[in-house]
Amino acid sequence: MRLTLLAFLGLVVACLLAVGTASADTGTFSGSITPTACGPMHAITVVAGETTVTAAANMDVAANDITLELYDPSGALKAHGDTATSPESVVYQSENLATGIWHVQVCPFSGGVIAQPYSYNGTFATSNAPVANVTPPGSGGGAPGGTPTPTYVGGKLVFSPATVVDPQRTEGEPLNFLDPKSNTYWESGPFGTTTQMSWIHRSTDNGLEFHVDSPVGLRPDALPGGGDTDIAVDDQGNHYFVDLEALVNLGTSVSNDNGNNWRKNPVAVQNAAVDRQWYTVDNGTTASAADNTVFLAFHETAVGTYIYSSPGSTGPTDQVGGLVWQNSSAEAPRPLAADATCAQIRFDKVTRNLYYACNEGTHVRVTVGHVAPGQRTGIQFHNVTVPDSPGGGGPGHLFPALATDSAGTVYTAWIDTNDNNVYYSYSTDQGTSWTTPARVNSAPSNTAEFLWAQAGSPGTLALAWYATDTPGQPDSFPNWADDPQGATAVKWWGYAGLITNAASLSPTIAQQRFTEKPMHYGEICNQGIGCTVSGGDRTMADYFAVNFDSSGALRFVYNDTTSQHNGAHLYEVRQLQGKTFNGKSVKEAVPKSPMKDVSGDAQWPHYSPTGAGANQPQLDLTNLALSQPSSSTLRVKMTVANLAGLQPPPGKTSAVWLTRFQALSVGDFGEESYRIFYVGAESTAGLQPQFFAGSTTCTDTTPQNCKITQYPRQMVAQGRVCGSTISVDVPVNGGFGIGLPVGKTLYNVTAFSFGRNNDNTDIYADVDATHAFDFALGGPAGGGAAC
Hints:
3% of the residues lie in helices and 43% in strands. It is mainly beta. The strands form 13 sheets. Strands 47, 48, 49, 52, 55, 56 and 57 form a seven-stranded antiparallel beta sheet that branches. A hairpin with a 5-residue loop joins strand 4 and strand 5. The model is unreliable at 1-5 and 18-22 (pLDDT under 50).
């Protein structure tokens, strides 16, 4: 159940106070503000011996354009809360806290968007908690480690067509990892704090098709959430999921059965205004669960950075492992360093060091802590600085990146805020000395954004980023929401920088695209939550990810916003051919039509508290084939295991068989767009199917904020059922929508089977999917009989 507003605000205030201390004065307040005038002053009484004053306030308006001010008895401003999210909170501590009447006041954010008076509610508290030393430690300069001279070459790897991770849900900030034991592929990301939803997708066939980890199409664990996420696995096969709720609290969950059941602690870390948390796992030195530790790093806005720890889970009855957390630092509760935007924390099992890279002015700061086997607390951390960024700016393009290779070399990388180039530096002595930064990217990657790093065998480093050939600042380009035509002139692609001899002064950098088409147009806002206020394009949120599979092949999970909806559609690309990052190589064929699919994988649901449901043979796809019986017609054939029945999956009224793809076309405003098109058949209540085609619609939460993609029966198509094959013919020109051109290449062609209750608002039952391939129109006519 959702907390009431005052109870929730009270929880925020409680989180601001030290655990186990007494509160001398508590209360609530309420009032209203206008676009230009603050609310009234609300009194807080502070008596002798008290050391802490806290307050929190909430206003129920989408932009939450408020600030919170705390004044001492003399009228001096002592604390200011402005995180651009809800609720706002303030805390002030002093061993000599002035006694008397303090005041808290809610004010409108300067430049905000509220246009009428709005009411707010709040809570406050005082405490006699001891004042801890919370001054963050500083950073020490790393020793010089030499100046690399890179050699730049073109990349020679072959990548797959994009796999559609989810045909319905959009999701920014995707993260991926492959379970090293089972090669199961996991992906997670947020849906937005206004929805409280975050998603986990899982693939059991090495990432060739994915299914959402949920029996009802919603989040896998209990509310709240919807913010930043991360997911990790230990050597016991236990999975850990963390979600952020409104920059206030972190909820952590554990699954011991591959995602069927999740136990959750909704307030795992007792801090307020927390942001961007990351996991890393120490699997210990034995095969036992007893020496496993999960580390959780985050930063507290305007305060500092922290690394907490929890024992690894020991099984489904364990209510502590991965759920109960404690500060890992020997100097707790002092922050590890000053507040900053930080990369994903990494644990290097070779040196047994934790590394946490953060932006700090003109350079990256790295927090280093050595972890003894089995150690979870009392870790001695220190901070070192990487040499200044050569581009004349600093590493302020949101997140820097850090990775360690199998020899224990540590690499950090970033995008310079001035010249928008990618740089990297490395240390072979556990962060004591760092090389002069080397530029990674080269034309046509002229303006870079979003960066991720993974390292493999000794001296191999993979960096991935988005880039356009248009010079300039990413947040200065035309915004698609305001100027669709202008935005499409700036095309973004996914890039990989593959560095060999990366831990030497003579690295070789091979740059190439990993996307076969543009994946974004125009502006990318890199101000984080500040984009909400500025109106910048934060459709993809703040990053994407790259990882390795068990063969060492590269695996990218990313957003493509080039559809007519400008939504953050979720895709995965894998390395098919070339050398891998464990020193081996892969050689897979490029997928093409016809595409076979294994049978017996059409369970519904795929995940539930009681395990997977029954296989649905009428929805169990076994083959997908595209052809052109004539130059003007596209024929789609979808074959299933057994089409003797047409019944929908449990809980839905209709069964649907659908093939979708992207193709170069025009958007809803006449701009260039890689529209999502589809061909399908639908049977309602087991009746004979109707055949259709069209181009997707999308359910928005706010104008032009696409959330759930829909596949309505827009255009009637000619179809037939022959045995267990559904065959549909569609005119290429006009068959998918009046006036909609279809480009010559059909990208990421994928067949799906699902159940739905309607075709305009429902979240579908996610039953089966084929693997993806591209298809070129205009080849020789053929394809044989319609069935």
